[in-house]
């Protein structure tokens, strides 16, 4: 469908991981440019202008976070950072500096490919402007401001609707607490975690079959939330039963 191959810049100093990434991405039709240090990466980012960047936070010559700052001065290409699991603080800092998503090492190439697709798609969605958003059994009509779960119209309060729309627009993507609060509630609400938690649980009550084990909006502990991309089939099993009291109450509210 897209004749121009998306170019992905990989910045990773461990040869086996760089090779694994390159093979996984090239097998999906992406064009890969790679390097193993920060200085070269900064230069390549400018000359190649990649559609997306995969960045190892631990580079030999530079802190990966420093590179994020440099790149963000002029580029909005999505950046996915790789780090080891014990460095959660580093991930949060990287996201705050403008990275879009992360994977922890050792990672499953399929997980990385899903993240790459979600982050490339986000850019397209924002440019094209869609009248309708779908994910699994959820369909949002953005023109009429209506939400359908398995074809059944369901009422959401204006704020719940906005939050759901935000998750749907950014489906598949890592979203930090701060980012969601800022984008949905405004800059003054950047620290209102409790506020966000309440609204996320309200939206979950309406869309999840099991709110204690959510399939759509999953918690990324200490970081934020991610709306998983579900197929319509997988999603049917995950919607609340149509005649549960909660849903009746919600649609009659
Ligand atoms: Ca490294």
Name the structural class: alpha/beta
Q: What is the CA-atom radius of gyration, in angstroms?
A: 19 Å
Shape, principal axes of CA atoms: globular
Residue-averaged pLDDT: 87
Count the E strands: 12
Helix content range of the residues, please? 40-55%
* Number of self-contained structural domains: 2
Main sheet summary: 5 strands, parallel
Bound molecules: calcium ion
- What name goes with the CATH superfamily of the largest domain? Winged helix-like DNA-binding domain superfamily/Winged helix DNA-binding domain
CATH class identity of the largest domain: Mainly Alpha
β-sheet strand percentage: 15-25%
CATH architecture of the largest domain: Orthogonal Bundle
Describe this structure in words.
The chain has 253 residues and is α/β, with parallel strands linked by helices. The chain folds into two domains: 7-127, Rossmann fold, CATH 3.40.50; 130-251, Orthogonal Bundle (Arc Repressor Mutant, subunit A). 44% of the residues lie in helices and 21% in strands. It has helices at 15-27, 38-48, 64-72, 88-96, 109-128, 158-169, 177-185, 193-207, 232-236, 245-252, and strands at 7-11, 31-35, 52-56, 79-84, 101-105, 132-135, 138-141, 146-149, 152-154, 174-176, 217-220, 224-227. A five-stranded parallel sheet has the order 2-1-3-4-5, with helices on both faces. A four-stranded antiparallel sheet has the order 6-7-8-9. Strand 3 (52-56), helix 3 (64-72) and strand 4 (79-84) form a beta-alpha-beta unit. Helix 2 (38-48) packs parallel to helix 3 (64-72) and helix 6 crosses helix 8. The longest helix is centred in the middle third of the chain and has 20 residues, at 109-128. The protein is globular, with a radius of gyration of 19 Å. The termini are far apart. Mean pLDDT is 87; it is low at 242-253. The structure holds calcium ion (CA). Calcium ion (CA) is lined by residues 13-14, 56, 58.
